[in-house]
């Protein structure tokens, strides 16, 4: 399943980009994620115009009764690894689930994240991605549930970077 999430900001690109690059972003974002028990920044390394970042998410959602024989709450944990290139104002990202290595082949989520200047000193952020859960029968339904949570997270991140970029 492919998706695009677009946000527009009444903030110049350079100011918004500083918020995206902030080492405090995860800490400021965490309180706005009701379905995430913890968000931990494991890596934030900015060198030579490239930010390497790793965030670890521990969701606080309950596994539906029908899936409890197959999915533990611990298996819902994941890491988001991203690489942001300043001169391009773009990133690539990938989600690594916290499951046994032999099960990782059943889940794939990756994509791009880009900022672009638009008219009037404004900025557009486009997050594009592909999400695939290869589980018979339940895969498409689970993908829709996952995508709904991905949208909530990126909406909360948009609010957080807007707040960070407009602090005076």
Descriptive terms for the model:
alpha+beta; Alpha-D-Glucose-1,6-Bisphosphate, Chain A, domain 4
Describe this structure in words.
Strand 4 (78-85) and strand 5 (90-97) form a beta hairpin. The protein is 24% helix and 42% strand. The mean pLDDT is 90. The longest helix has 27 residues, at 139-165. Strands 1-7-6-5-4-3-2 form a 7-stranded antiparallel beta sheet. It has 168 residues and is of the alpha+beta class. The chain has helices spanning 13-21, 25-29, 139-165; strands spanning 2-9, 36-47, 50-59, 78-85, 90-97, 107-118, 122-133. The protein has a single domain (2-165), classed as Alpha-D-Glucose-1,6-Bisphosphate, Chain A, domain 4. The protein is elongated. The N and C termini lie far apart (40 Å). Helix 1 crosses helix 3. The chain is built from 3 helices and 7 strands.
Summarize the structure.
The protein is α+β, with helices and mostly antiparallel strands and 168 residues long. The chain has helices at residues 13-21, 25-29, 139-165; strands at 2-9, 36-47, 50-59, 78-85, 90-97, 107-118, 122-133. It has one domain (2-165): START domain (Alpha-D-Glucose-1,6-Bisphosphate, Chain A, domain 4), CATH 3.30.530.20.
